[in-house]
Amino acid sequence: MGRKMIEISHLVKQFGTLQAVNDLSFSVAPGEVLGFLGPNGAGKSTTMKIVTGFLKPSAGRVSIFGCDIEQDTIAAQRQMGYLPEGAPCYEEMTPRTFLNFIAAARGLKGAYASERLQQVIDTMSLQAVLDQRIETLSKGFKRRVGLAQAIIHDPKILILDEPTDGLDPNQKHQVREMIRGLAKDKIVIISTHILEEVTAVCTRAIIITQGQVVADCRPDELEQRSKYHGALTLDFDESVTAEDFLEEFASLEQVALVESIEESNQLSLFPRHKDQSMLLDVSQLIRDRQLPVVSINQEKGKLDEVFRAVTQEQNP
Amino acid sequence: MNGIKVITSREIRSYFATPLAYVFILIFLVLSGVFTFYMGNLFERGQADLIPFFNFHPWLYLFLVPAISMRLWSEERKSGSIELLLTLPITRFQAVVGKFLAAWLFAGLALFLTFPIWLTVNYLGDPDNGVIFSSYLGSWLMAGGFLAIGSCMSAVSQSQVIAFILTGTVCLLFVLAGFPLVLNVFRDWLPILVVDTVASLSFMTHFGAIAKGVLGLQDLVFFFSVILFWLLATTVVVEMKQGQ
Questions:
Q1: Taking the domain A232-299, which CATH number applies?
Q2: What is residue A80's three-state secondary structure?
Q3: Domain A6-225 in this protein, CATH class
Q4: Separation in Å, CA of A133 to nearest CA in chain B
Q5: pLDDT single digits (tens) A104-148
Q6: Yes or no, beta carbons of B83 and A88 under 8 Å apart
Q7: Which tens digit of pLDDT belongs to each residue from A16-43?
Q8: Under DSSP, is residue A165 helix (H, G, I), strand (E, B) or coil?
Q9: CA neighbours closer than 13 Å in the CB half-sphere of residue A253
Q10: CA distance B98 to B195
Q11: Rounded Cα gap, residues A276 and A248, in angstroms
Q12: Could you say which DSSP state residue A71 is in?
Protein backbone atom coordinates (compact mmCIF):
# COMPACT_ATOMS: atom_id res chain seq x y z
CA MET A 1 0.00 0.00 0.00
CA GLY A 2 1.08 3.54 -0.60
CA ARG A 3 4.00 2.71 -2.84
CA LYS A 4 1.93 2.17 -5.92
CA MET A 5 -0.79 4.71 -5.86
CA ILE A 6 -1.79 8.31 -5.57
CA GLU A 7 -2.97 9.09 -2.08
CA ILE A 8 -4.62 12.36 -1.29
CA SER A 9 -5.40 12.92 2.34
CA HIS A 10 -7.25 15.77 4.00
CA LEU A 11 -6.28 18.22 1.30
CA VAL A 12 -7.18 21.85 1.95
CA LYS A 13 -6.51 24.83 -0.27
CA GLN A 14 -7.48 28.31 0.69
CA PHE A 15 -7.24 31.37 -1.55
CA GLY A 16 -7.78 34.28 0.79
CA THR A 17 -11.26 33.70 2.18
CA LEU A 18 -12.19 31.26 -0.57
CA GLN A 19 -12.04 27.60 0.39
CA ALA A 20 -11.29 25.97 -2.96
CA VAL A 21 -10.56 22.50 -1.63
CA ASN A 22 -12.04 21.44 1.66
CA ASP A 23 -10.67 18.33 3.37
CA LEU A 24 -10.49 16.21 0.24
CA SER A 25 -9.33 12.59 0.58
CA PHE A 26 -9.19 9.76 -1.92
CA SER A 27 -6.68 7.43 -3.50
CA VAL A 28 -6.25 6.08 -7.01
CA ALA A 29 -4.67 2.73 -7.89
CA PRO A 30 -2.97 1.65 -11.14
CA GLY A 31 -5.40 0.58 -13.82
CA GLU A 32 -7.98 3.10 -12.77
CA VAL A 33 -9.23 5.81 -15.11
CA LEU A 34 -10.73 8.30 -12.76
CA GLY A 35 -13.30 10.81 -13.99
CA PHE A 36 -13.12 13.89 -11.86
CA LEU A 37 -16.46 15.65 -12.05
CA GLY A 38 -17.94 18.73 -10.57
CA PRO A 39 -19.53 22.05 -11.43
CA ASN A 40 -17.29 24.96 -12.43
CA GLY A 41 -15.39 26.25 -9.43
CA ALA A 42 -15.81 23.00 -7.48
CA GLY A 43 -12.06 22.68 -6.98
CA LYS A 44 -11.22 20.17 -9.74
CA SER A 45 -8.46 22.20 -11.35
CA THR A 46 -7.09 23.35 -8.02
CA THR A 47 -6.83 19.74 -6.85
CA MET A 48 -5.03 18.78 -10.05
CA LYS A 49 -2.64 21.71 -9.67
CA ILE A 50 -1.78 20.56 -6.18
CA VAL A 51 -1.35 16.93 -7.20
CA THR A 52 1.05 17.93 -9.99
CA GLY A 53 3.09 20.12 -7.64
CA PHE A 54 2.18 23.45 -9.20
CA LEU A 55 0.32 24.75 -6.15
CA LYS A 56 1.15 24.14 -2.54
CA PRO A 57 -1.70 22.88 -0.40
CA SER A 58 -2.77 24.91 2.65
CA ALA A 59 -3.01 21.64 4.57
CA GLY A 60 -3.08 17.89 3.98
CA ARG A 61 -0.77 15.81 1.87
CA VAL A 62 -0.44 14.21 -1.52
CA SER A 63 1.69 11.14 -2.05
CA ILE A 64 2.65 9.98 -5.54
CA PHE A 65 3.92 6.38 -5.42
CA GLY A 66 5.30 7.12 -1.96
CA CYS A 67 6.86 10.49 -2.88
CA ASP A 68 5.42 13.42 -0.98
CA ILE A 69 4.59 16.15 -3.48
CA GLU A 70 5.87 18.90 -1.19
CA GLN A 71 9.01 17.20 0.13
CA ASP A 72 9.96 15.24 -2.92
CA THR A 73 8.49 17.37 -5.68
CA ILE A 74 10.87 16.53 -8.50
CA ALA A 75 10.75 12.75 -7.95
CA ALA A 76 6.95 12.91 -7.88
CA GLN A 77 6.78 15.12 -10.97
CA ARG A 78 8.93 12.68 -12.93
CA GLN A 79 6.19 10.07 -12.64
CA MET A 80 3.46 12.30 -13.99
CA GLY A 81 2.35 13.69 -17.30
CA TYR A 82 0.09 16.70 -17.07
CA LEU A 83 -2.16 18.57 -19.44
CA PRO A 84 -3.09 21.85 -17.77
CA GLU A 85 -6.49 23.41 -18.39
CA GLY A 86 -6.66 25.00 -21.84
CA ALA A 87 -3.47 23.17 -22.93
CA PRO A 88 -1.10 26.14 -22.68
CA CYS A 89 2.21 25.89 -24.48
CA TYR A 90 4.91 28.04 -26.01
CA GLU A 91 3.06 29.39 -29.01
CA GLU A 92 6.10 30.68 -30.87
CA MET A 93 7.57 27.17 -31.08
CA THR A 94 6.68 24.44 -33.53
CA PRO A 95 5.35 21.09 -32.29
CA ARG A 96 8.72 19.55 -33.15
CA THR A 97 10.86 22.02 -31.18
CA PHE A 98 8.32 22.12 -28.36
CA LEU A 99 8.18 18.34 -27.96
CA ASN A 100 11.97 18.15 -28.18
CA PHE A 101 12.17 20.70 -25.38
CA ILE A 102 9.77 18.73 -23.17
CA ALA A 103 11.64 15.49 -23.90
CA ALA A 104 14.94 17.13 -22.93
CA ALA A 105 13.43 18.67 -19.79
CA ARG A 106 12.10 15.23 -18.87
CA GLY A 107 15.60 13.85 -19.27
CA LEU A 108 14.94 11.67 -22.32
CA LYS A 109 18.11 11.10 -24.34
CA GLY A 110 19.39 9.88 -27.69
CA ALA A 111 17.65 7.06 -29.50
CA TYR A 112 15.01 6.63 -26.82
CA ALA A 113 14.06 10.31 -27.10
CA SER A 114 13.67 10.11 -30.89
CA GLU A 115 11.71 6.89 -30.59
CA ARG A 116 9.30 8.40 -28.07
CA LEU A 117 8.99 11.57 -30.11
CA GLN A 118 8.03 9.58 -33.21
CA GLN A 119 5.58 7.54 -31.19
CA VAL A 120 3.67 10.51 -29.76
CA ILE A 121 3.65 12.18 -33.18
CA ASP A 122 2.00 9.05 -34.56
CA THR A 123 -0.41 8.62 -31.67
CA MET A 124 -1.55 12.22 -31.88
CA SER A 125 -1.36 12.44 -35.71
CA LEU A 126 0.86 15.51 -35.63
CA GLN A 127 3.00 14.68 -38.67
CA ALA A 128 1.31 17.22 -40.94
CA VAL A 129 1.82 20.23 -38.66
CA LEU A 130 5.19 19.33 -37.16
CA ASP A 131 7.00 22.40 -38.44
CA GLN A 132 4.26 24.99 -38.18
CA ARG A 133 4.24 27.49 -35.36
CA ILE A 134 1.86 26.35 -32.63
CA GLU A 135 0.10 29.74 -32.60
CA THR A 136 -1.09 29.10 -36.16
CA LEU A 137 -2.61 25.70 -35.35
CA SER A 138 -6.30 24.98 -34.82
CA LYS A 139 -7.62 24.36 -31.33
CA GLY A 140 -7.77 20.62 -31.97
CA PHE A 141 -4.14 20.43 -32.99
CA LYS A 142 -3.04 22.59 -30.06
CA ARG A 143 -4.83 20.23 -27.70
CA ARG A 144 -3.12 17.27 -29.34
CA VAL A 145 0.28 18.93 -28.95
CA GLY A 146 -0.60 19.40 -25.27
CA LEU A 147 -1.54 15.74 -24.94
CA ALA A 148 1.61 14.68 -26.79
CA GLN A 149 3.83 16.53 -24.31
CA ALA A 150 1.94 14.89 -21.43
CA ILE A 151 2.65 11.35 -22.64
CA ILE A 152 6.09 11.78 -24.23
CA HIS A 153 7.96 10.24 -21.28
CA ASP A 154 5.47 7.37 -21.01
CA PRO A 155 4.43 8.38 -17.48
CA LYS A 156 2.81 6.02 -15.02
CA ILE A 157 0.36 8.74 -14.09
CA LEU A 158 -1.49 10.93 -16.51
CA ILE A 159 -3.40 13.96 -15.28
CA LEU A 160 -5.59 15.65 -17.86
CA ASP A 161 -7.56 18.79 -17.09
CA GLU A 162 -10.49 18.90 -19.50
CA PRO A 163 -8.68 17.12 -22.32
CA THR A 164 -11.57 17.23 -24.81
CA ASP A 165 -12.87 20.71 -24.04
CA GLY A 166 -13.51 22.59 -27.27
CA LEU A 167 -12.76 19.67 -29.59
CA ASP A 168 -15.09 18.51 -32.36
CA PRO A 169 -16.75 15.07 -32.05
CA ASN A 170 -14.09 13.34 -34.18
CA GLN A 171 -11.27 14.79 -32.12
CA LYS A 172 -13.05 13.89 -28.88
CA HIS A 173 -13.35 10.34 -30.15
CA GLN A 174 -9.61 10.24 -30.96
CA VAL A 175 -8.63 11.52 -27.53
CA ARG A 176 -10.85 8.94 -25.84
CA GLU A 177 -9.40 6.18 -27.99
CA MET A 178 -5.93 7.33 -26.96
CA ILE A 179 -6.84 7.21 -23.27
CA ARG A 180 -8.43 3.77 -23.66
CA GLY A 181 -5.33 2.60 -25.52
CA LEU A 182 -2.98 3.42 -22.65
CA ALA A 183 -1.38 0.52 -20.88
CA LYS A 184 -3.59 -1.01 -18.24
CA ASP A 185 -1.22 -0.42 -15.35
CA LYS A 186 -1.39 3.36 -15.55
CA ILE A 187 -3.29 5.83 -13.46
CA VAL A 188 -5.32 8.35 -15.40
CA ILE A 189 -7.20 11.24 -13.85
CA ILE A 190 -9.43 13.24 -16.16
CA SER A 191 -11.37 16.27 -15.09
CA THR A 192 -14.39 17.04 -17.15
CA HIS A 193 -17.86 18.39 -17.05
CA ILE A 194 -18.88 16.37 -20.07
CA LEU A 195 -20.75 13.49 -18.49
CA GLU A 196 -20.81 11.18 -21.51
CA GLU A 197 -17.02 11.17 -21.31
CA VAL A 198 -17.20 9.49 -17.95
CA THR A 199 -19.24 6.56 -19.20
CA ALA A 200 -17.09 6.43 -22.34
CA VAL A 201 -13.63 6.11 -20.76
CA CYS A 202 -13.67 6.06 -16.96
CA THR A 203 -13.65 3.10 -14.63
CA ARG A 204 -14.45 5.27 -11.67
CA ALA A 205 -16.12 8.61 -11.10
CA ILE A 206 -15.68 11.11 -8.32
CA ILE A 207 -17.99 14.07 -8.08
CA ILE A 208 -16.80 16.98 -6.02
CA THR A 209 -18.57 20.15 -5.13
CA GLN A 210 -17.34 22.98 -2.96
CA GLY A 211 -14.05 21.14 -2.57
CA GLN A 212 -15.55 17.96 -1.13
CA VAL A 213 -16.28 14.49 -2.47
CA VAL A 214 -20.02 13.93 -2.80
CA ALA A 215 -19.95 10.73 -4.86
CA ASP A 216 -17.28 8.11 -5.54
CA CYS A 217 -18.27 5.01 -7.51
CA ARG A 218 -18.28 3.29 -10.91
CA PRO A 219 -19.97 5.28 -13.69
CA ASP A 220 -22.70 2.64 -14.04
CA GLU A 221 -23.40 2.80 -10.32
CA LEU A 222 -23.78 6.51 -10.74
CA GLU A 223 -26.33 5.90 -13.46
CA GLN A 224 -28.19 3.52 -11.18
CA ARG A 225 -28.58 6.31 -8.69
CA SER A 226 -30.61 8.15 -11.24
CA LYS A 227 -34.33 8.00 -10.71
CA TYR A 228 -34.47 7.32 -14.45
CA HIS A 229 -32.50 4.09 -14.06
CA GLY A 230 -34.75 1.30 -15.37
CA ALA A 231 -37.45 3.74 -16.39
CA LEU A 232 -39.31 3.38 -19.68
CA THR A 233 -39.98 6.29 -21.95
CA LEU A 234 -42.92 5.95 -24.33
CA ASP A 235 -43.19 8.15 -27.41
CA PHE A 236 -46.74 8.71 -28.55
CA ASP A 237 -47.99 9.46 -32.02
CA GLU A 238 -48.76 13.11 -32.65
CA SER A 239 -52.42 12.35 -33.25
CA VAL A 240 -53.00 11.74 -29.53
CA THR A 241 -52.03 13.40 -26.25
CA ALA A 242 -49.74 11.28 -24.12
CA GLU A 243 -51.18 12.58 -20.90
CA ASP A 244 -54.56 10.98 -21.67
CA PHE A 245 -53.07 7.54 -21.12
CA LEU A 246 -51.31 8.37 -17.88
CA GLU A 247 -53.91 6.71 -15.64
CA GLU A 248 -53.89 3.49 -17.60
CA PHE A 249 -50.15 2.97 -17.21
CA ALA A 250 -50.22 4.08 -13.58
CA SER A 251 -52.64 1.25 -12.83
CA LEU A 252 -50.07 -1.42 -13.83
CA GLU A 253 -48.74 -3.33 -10.82
CA GLN A 254 -45.01 -2.94 -11.66
CA VAL A 255 -45.27 0.77 -12.28
CA ALA A 256 -44.63 3.02 -9.34
CA LEU A 257 -45.10 6.38 -10.98
CA VAL A 258 -45.89 7.88 -14.35
CA GLU A 259 -44.76 11.28 -15.46
CA SER A 260 -45.93 13.09 -18.51
CA ILE A 261 -43.48 15.13 -20.55
CA GLU A 262 -45.77 17.47 -22.38
CA GLU A 263 -43.43 19.18 -24.83
CA SER A 264 -42.26 15.89 -26.39
CA ASN A 265 -45.58 14.01 -26.02
CA GLN A 266 -43.93 11.31 -23.91
CA LEU A 267 -44.67 9.36 -20.77
CA SER A 268 -41.94 8.27 -18.34
CA LEU A 269 -42.75 5.15 -16.36
CA PHE A 270 -40.81 4.47 -13.17
CA PRO A 271 -40.57 0.87 -11.88
CA ARG A 272 -41.64 -0.16 -8.41
CA HIS A 273 -38.51 -2.32 -8.12
CA LYS A 274 -35.41 -1.20 -9.99
CA ASP A 275 -34.34 -4.76 -10.81
CA GLN A 276 -37.67 -5.86 -12.28
CA SER A 277 -38.47 -4.85 -15.81
CA MET A 278 -41.89 -3.43 -16.60
CA LEU A 279 -41.34 -3.98 -20.29
CA LEU A 280 -43.53 -7.10 -20.63
CA ASP A 281 -46.54 -5.65 -18.83
CA VAL A 282 -46.25 -2.34 -20.60
CA SER A 283 -45.95 -3.82 -24.08
CA GLN A 284 -48.87 -6.15 -23.30
CA LEU A 285 -51.02 -3.17 -22.39
CA ILE A 286 -50.00 -1.30 -25.54
CA ARG A 287 -50.87 -4.31 -27.70
CA ASP A 288 -54.19 -5.01 -25.94
CA ARG A 289 -55.35 -1.42 -26.13
CA GLN A 290 -53.81 -0.78 -29.57
CA LEU A 291 -52.20 2.39 -28.23
CA PRO A 292 -50.44 4.66 -30.78
CA VAL A 293 -46.97 4.31 -29.22
CA VAL A 294 -44.16 5.03 -31.69
CA SER A 295 -41.20 3.86 -29.59
CA ILE A 296 -40.24 2.50 -26.18
CA ASN A 297 -36.88 3.33 -24.62
CA GLN A 298 -35.39 1.65 -21.58
CA GLU A 299 -33.36 4.30 -19.72
CA LYS A 300 -29.94 3.44 -18.24
CA GLY A 301 -30.06 6.50 -16.05
CA LYS A 302 -29.40 10.11 -16.72
CA LEU A 303 -25.97 11.15 -15.50
CA ASP A 304 -26.64 14.83 -15.68
CA GLU A 305 -29.67 14.34 -13.46
CA VAL A 306 -27.53 12.50 -10.86
CA PHE A 307 -24.91 15.18 -11.25
CA ARG A 308 -27.44 17.91 -10.57
CA ALA A 309 -28.92 16.00 -7.68
CA VAL A 310 -25.64 15.35 -5.84
CA THR A 311 -24.08 18.73 -6.50
CA GLN A 312 -27.14 20.71 -5.52
CA GLU A 313 -27.81 18.87 -2.29
CA GLN A 314 -24.73 20.68 -1.03
CA ASN A 315 -25.47 23.90 -2.79
CA PRO A 316 -29.19 24.62 -2.78
CA MET B 1 22.26 21.38 -14.30
CA ASN B 2 20.45 19.71 -17.19
CA GLY B 3 17.33 21.65 -16.24
CA ILE B 4 19.10 25.00 -16.48
CA LYS B 5 20.65 24.11 -19.81
CA VAL B 6 17.36 22.97 -21.31
CA ILE B 7 15.51 26.10 -20.16
CA THR B 8 18.28 28.43 -21.34
CA SER B 9 18.42 26.93 -24.78
CA ARG B 10 14.63 27.02 -25.17
CA GLU B 11 14.52 30.66 -24.13
CA ILE B 12 17.27 31.72 -26.50
CA ARG B 13 15.52 29.99 -29.39
CA SER B 14 12.32 31.74 -28.50
CA TYR B 15 14.04 35.16 -28.61
CA PHE B 16 15.00 34.52 -32.19
CA ALA B 17 11.66 32.98 -33.11
CA THR B 18 10.09 36.44 -32.88
CA PRO B 19 11.24 39.81 -34.26
CA LEU B 20 12.06 40.89 -30.68
CA ALA B 21 15.68 39.77 -30.84
CA TYR B 22 16.44 41.47 -34.13
CA VAL B 23 14.65 44.70 -33.22
CA PHE B 24 16.42 44.82 -29.89
CA ILE B 25 19.88 44.26 -31.32
CA LEU B 26 19.31 46.80 -34.07
CA ILE B 27 18.12 49.49 -31.68
CA PHE B 28 20.91 48.73 -29.22
CA LEU B 29 23.54 49.10 -31.93
CA VAL B 30 22.04 52.27 -33.41
CA LEU B 31 21.64 53.95 -30.02
CA SER B 32 25.07 53.01 -28.77
CA GLY B 33 26.47 54.45 -32.01
CA VAL B 34 24.49 57.66 -31.64
CA PHE B 35 25.53 58.09 -28.02
CA THR B 36 29.16 57.40 -28.74
CA PHE B 37 29.69 59.48 -31.84
CA TYR B 38 27.26 62.39 -31.44
CA MET B 39 26.83 62.86 -27.73
CA GLY B 40 30.15 61.37 -26.64
CA ASN B 41 32.16 63.08 -29.40
CA LEU B 42 34.38 60.06 -29.87
CA PHE B 43 36.24 61.59 -32.80
CA GLU B 44 36.48 65.17 -31.55
CA ARG B 45 38.10 64.12 -28.30
CA GLY B 46 41.09 62.88 -30.27
CA GLN B 47 41.77 60.05 -27.84
CA ALA B 48 41.99 56.39 -28.70
CA ASP B 49 39.71 54.92 -26.03
CA LEU B 50 36.09 53.87 -25.63
CA ILE B 51 35.22 55.94 -22.58
CA PRO B 52 32.39 57.85 -24.35
CA PHE B 53 30.97 54.50 -25.50
CA PHE B 54 30.89 52.87 -22.08
CA ASN B 55 29.82 56.01 -20.22
CA PHE B 56 26.40 55.82 -21.75
CA HIS B 57 25.82 52.14 -21.06
CA PRO B 58 24.07 52.52 -17.70
CA TRP B 59 21.57 54.92 -19.29
CA LEU B 60 21.13 52.78 -22.36
CA TYR B 61 20.48 49.71 -20.22
CA LEU B 62 17.97 51.62 -18.16
CA PHE B 63 15.36 51.34 -20.86
CA LEU B 64 16.67 48.53 -23.04
CA VAL B 65 17.21 45.89 -20.37
CA PRO B 66 13.61 46.08 -19.09
CA ALA B 67 12.55 45.41 -22.67
CA ILE B 68 14.33 42.03 -22.56
CA SER B 69 13.45 41.11 -19.02
CA MET B 70 9.79 42.16 -18.93
CA ARG B 71 8.60 39.04 -20.71
CA LEU B 72 10.62 36.54 -18.68
CA TRP B 73 7.84 35.63 -16.26
CA SER B 74 4.91 37.90 -17.15
CA GLU B 75 4.37 36.11 -20.42
CA GLU B 76 4.58 32.66 -18.85
CA ARG B 77 1.93 33.55 -16.35
CA LYS B 78 -0.32 35.30 -18.82
CA SER B 79 -0.30 32.45 -21.34
CA GLY B 80 -0.56 29.81 -18.61
CA SER B 81 2.59 28.05 -19.80
CA ILE B 82 4.05 28.62 -16.32
CA GLU B 83 1.92 25.68 -15.20
CA LEU B 84 3.58 23.51 -17.78
CA LEU B 85 7.05 24.79 -16.93
CA LEU B 86 6.73 24.32 -13.19
CA THR B 87 5.27 20.82 -13.37
CA LEU B 88 8.28 19.60 -15.34
CA PRO B 89 10.86 17.90 -13.14
CA ILE B 90 12.82 21.15 -12.82
CA THR B 91 13.15 23.19 -9.64
CA ARG B 92 11.89 26.76 -9.44
CA PHE B 93 15.42 28.04 -8.98
CA GLN B 94 16.68 26.15 -12.02
CA ALA B 95 13.90 27.68 -14.10
CA VAL B 96 14.73 31.16 -12.76
CA VAL B 97 18.44 30.75 -13.45
CA GLY B 98 17.83 29.19 -16.87
CA LYS B 99 15.68 32.09 -18.00
CA PHE B 100 18.08 34.65 -16.58
CA LEU B 101 21.07 33.06 -18.30
CA ALA B 102 19.28 33.14 -21.63
CA ALA B 103 18.58 36.85 -21.25
CA TRP B 104 22.13 37.52 -20.08
CA LEU B 105 23.69 35.62 -22.97
CA PHE B 106 21.42 37.51 -25.33
CA ALA B 107 22.54 40.84 -23.85
CA GLY B 108 26.12 39.59 -24.21
CA LEU B 109 25.52 38.94 -27.89
CA ALA B 110 24.15 42.47 -28.41
CA LEU B 111 27.19 43.85 -26.62
CA PHE B 112 29.53 41.69 -28.68
CA LEU B 113 28.02 43.04 -31.88
CA THR B 114 29.31 46.52 -31.01
CA PHE B 115 32.80 45.30 -31.92
CA PRO B 116 33.01 47.58 -35.01
CA ILE B 117 33.43 50.48 -32.59
CA TRP B 118 36.36 48.67 -31.02
CA LEU B 119 37.81 48.02 -34.50
CA THR B 120 37.40 51.71 -35.30
CA VAL B 121 39.44 52.98 -32.36
CA ASN B 122 42.08 50.34 -33.05
CA TYR B 123 42.26 51.47 -36.65
CA LEU B 124 42.51 55.14 -35.72
CA GLY B 125 44.88 54.86 -32.81
CA ASP B 126 46.49 52.65 -30.25
CA PRO B 127 44.02 52.16 -27.36
CA ASP B 128 44.65 50.12 -24.22
CA ASN B 129 42.79 46.96 -25.18
CA GLY B 130 43.08 45.61 -21.65
CA VAL B 131 41.00 48.49 -20.37
CA ILE B 132 38.51 48.01 -23.20
CA PHE B 133 38.16 44.31 -22.43
CA SER B 134 37.68 45.08 -18.77
CA SER B 135 35.04 47.68 -19.65
CA TYR B 136 33.15 45.20 -21.80
CA LEU B 137 33.19 42.73 -18.94
CA GLY B 138 32.00 45.40 -16.51
CA SER B 139 29.23 46.42 -18.86
CA TRP B 140 28.07 42.84 -19.26
CA LEU B 141 28.10 42.30 -15.49
CA MET B 142 26.07 45.46 -15.04
CA ALA B 143 23.59 44.24 -17.67
CA GLY B 144 23.36 41.03 -15.63
CA GLY B 145 22.50 43.02 -12.51
CA PHE B 146 19.80 44.93 -14.39
CA LEU B 147 18.42 41.72 -15.88
CA ALA B 148 18.25 40.00 -12.49
CA ILE B 149 16.24 42.94 -11.15
CA GLY B 150 14.08 42.79 -14.28
CA SER B 151 13.50 39.07 -13.79
CA CYS B 152 12.12 39.69 -10.32
CA MET B 153 9.91 42.59 -11.46
CA SER B 154 8.60 40.45 -14.29
CA ALA B 155 7.58 37.82 -11.78
CA VAL B 156 5.71 40.46 -9.78
CA SER B 157 3.24 41.38 -12.48
CA GLN B 158 1.33 39.64 -15.23
CA SER B 159 1.49 42.84 -17.22
CA GLN B 160 4.64 43.37 -19.24
CA VAL B 161 4.14 47.14 -19.17
CA ILE B 162 4.11 47.20 -15.39
CA ALA B 163 7.15 44.93 -15.33
CA PHE B 164 8.92 47.33 -17.68
CA ILE B 165 8.20 50.41 -15.56
CA LEU B 166 9.04 48.71 -12.26
CA THR B 167 12.32 47.43 -13.65
CA GLY B 168 13.26 50.84 -15.02
CA THR B 169 12.50 52.48 -11.67
CA VAL B 170 14.37 50.00 -9.49
CA CYS B 171 17.33 50.02 -11.86
CA LEU B 172 17.39 53.82 -11.80
CA LEU B 173 17.60 53.71 -8.01
CA PHE B 174 20.59 51.36 -8.25
CA VAL B 175 22.27 53.56 -10.83
CA LEU B 176 21.71 56.71 -8.85
CA ALA B 177 22.49 55.22 -5.44
CA GLY B 178 25.91 56.90 -5.40
CA PHE B 179 24.58 60.30 -6.51
CA PRO B 180 23.87 63.17 -4.10
CA LEU B 181 20.26 63.16 -5.33
CA VAL B 182 19.63 59.85 -3.58
CA LEU B 183 22.20 60.13 -0.80
CA ASN B 184 20.91 63.52 0.44
CA VAL B 185 17.55 61.95 1.09
CA PHE B 186 19.15 59.55 3.56
CA ARG B 187 21.96 61.70 4.90
CA ASP B 188 19.84 63.80 7.24
CA TRP B 189 18.17 61.06 9.20
CA LEU B 190 20.16 57.84 8.80
CA PRO B 191 23.49 56.86 10.36
CA ILE B 192 26.50 57.35 8.11
CA LEU B 193 27.01 53.59 7.97
CA VAL B 194 23.66 53.14 6.24
CA VAL B 195 24.34 56.02 3.87
CA ASP B 196 27.66 54.46 2.95
CA THR B 197 25.96 51.13 2.40
CA VAL B 198 23.44 52.74 0.06
CA ALA B 199 26.26 54.49 -1.79
CA SER B 200 28.13 51.23 -2.13
CA LEU B 201 25.13 49.69 -3.91
CA SER B 202 25.57 52.06 -6.82
CA PHE B 203 26.02 50.30 -10.12
CA MET B 204 27.87 53.39 -11.36
CA THR B 205 30.61 53.18 -8.76
CA HIS B 206 31.32 49.52 -9.43
CA PHE B 207 30.97 49.74 -13.18
CA GLY B 208 33.16 52.86 -13.18
CA ALA B 209 35.90 50.99 -11.34
CA ILE B 210 35.89 48.07 -13.76
CA ALA B 211 35.63 50.40 -16.78
CA LYS B 212 38.83 52.11 -15.67
CA GLY B 213 40.54 48.77 -16.16
CA VAL B 214 40.70 47.85 -12.48
CA LEU B 215 39.20 44.38 -12.21
CA GLY B 216 38.82 44.47 -8.44
CA LEU B 217 37.50 41.42 -6.63
CA GLN B 218 35.01 43.51 -4.67
CA ASP B 219 33.38 44.78 -7.87
CA LEU B 220 33.04 41.28 -9.30
CA VAL B 221 31.66 40.04 -5.99
CA PHE B 222 29.27 42.99 -5.94
CA PHE B 223 27.71 42.24 -9.31
CA PHE B 224 27.51 38.50 -8.71
CA SER B 225 25.89 39.09 -5.31
CA VAL B 226 23.37 41.48 -6.84
CA ILE B 227 22.52 38.89 -9.49
CA LEU B 228 22.23 36.07 -6.99
CA PHE B 229 20.14 38.15 -4.60
CA TRP B 230 17.62 39.16 -7.25
CA LEU B 231 17.41 35.65 -8.68
CA LEU B 232 16.64 34.27 -5.24
CA ALA B 233 14.07 37.04 -4.85
CA THR B 234 12.59 36.02 -8.21
CA THR B 235 12.27 32.43 -6.99
CA VAL B 236 10.44 33.61 -3.88
CA VAL B 237 8.11 35.86 -5.87
CA VAL B 238 7.33 33.12 -8.40
CA GLU B 239 6.50 30.81 -5.51
CA MET B 240 4.34 33.41 -3.77
CA LYS B 241 2.44 34.42 -6.87
CA GLN B 242 1.55 30.83 -7.64
CA GLY B 243 -0.44 30.53 -4.47
CA GLN B 244 -2.79 33.31 -5.50
A1: 3.30.70.100
A2: strand
A3: alpha beta
A4: 10
A5: 999 999 999 999 999 999 888 899 999 999 999 988 889 899 999
A6: yes
A7: 888 889 899 999 999 899 999 888 888 8
A8: coil
A9: 4
A10: 35
A11: 19
A12: T
